[in-house]
Amino acid sequence: MTEKLNPILLDIPSELIGDRVLLRTFRDEHAPDLWNAVEASRENLKHWMPWVNEHNSLDFSREYVRRMQAKWLLREDLAMGIWRRVDNQFLGATGLHRIDWTIPAMEIGYWIRPDAEGQGFITEAMKLLTNFAFRHLRAERLTIRCDSKNLRSAAVPPRVAFIHEATLRQERRNADGDLGDTAVFAMTRADFELLRA
User: Fold this and answer.
1) How do residues 122-161 score in pLDDT, each as one tens digit?
2) Which residues lie closer than 8 Å to 177 by C-beta, 6 or more apart?
3) How far is it between the farthest Cα atoms of the chain?
4) Is residue 188 part of a domain?
5) The domain spanning residue 69 has which CATH number?
6) Which of 7, 123, 138, 183 could lock 75 by a disulfide, CB 3.0 to 4.6 Å apart?
7) Mean pLDDT score, 23-41
């Protein structure tokens, strides 16, 4: 039996540095950047991420940042912003969500501003998070879920060696209120170790 992990006692870095992106935990001063990115992305996001309708003011961004800070400390949700390193522009958000520390297993989520799409920033961010989760957080399983019709989002997991495990039919309501299918991609620790071999 493996040693039980106490996530509260884990020392988790607040920044992950890649070649072109920097992932960092949200701080109070990031709220305006977050709000501006949500506003710039609203038309793209509303089809796939219903939360964007609730994110309707700078004060909401401020509240979100504070909630994510608290959840980070409790190790309940590990949300991070994505910044372009060359000019420190806020590009979007990512993180490890739906965490089950008894396994440990977690889900990666992500979104990016439209003017930064198709440039490899999300792929690099996913590689950073995947390495971080398996090496630092002792993850045994990671998943990425997206609407099966969101072809841009569904193209990311295979680029970082996640395996398409299933499409859950009529599994949830989409942003329009219709039933939608969810594509589920996953990587296990064994998959990760094979990639490193």
Assistant:
1) 999 999 999 999 999 999 999 999 999 999 999 999 999 9
2) none
3) 48
4) yes
5) 3.40.630.30
6) 7
7) 97
- Pick from 62, 93, 192: nearest CA to 140: 192
**Mapping DSSP to helix (H, G, I), strand (E, B) and coil, where does residue 86 land?**
coil
Q: Does any domain span residue 5?
A: no
What is the extent of the structural domain holding 168?
13-196
- Please report which residue ranges of the chain form alpha helices under DSSP H: 31-45, 58-74, 121-135, 151-154, 156-159, 189-196
Sheet containing strand 15-17, edge to edge, reads 15-17, 21-25, 78-84, 89-100, 105-112, 141-147, 179-188, 163-173
Average per-residue pLDDT for the chain: 94
Whether 183 maps to a domain, the answer reads yes
Task: Report the 3 state secondary structure along 10-54.
Answer: CCCCCEEECCCEEEEECCHHHHHHHHHHHHHHHHHHCCCCHHHHC
Count of structural domains, the chain:
1
CA quadruple 19, 124, 48, 25: dihedral positive or negative? negative
The answer to whether residue 172 is domain-embedded is yes
For residue 171 the two structure tokens come to 């599994």
pTM: 0.93
**If we measure between CA atoms, which residue out of 190, 75, 81, 77 comes closest to residue 125?**
81
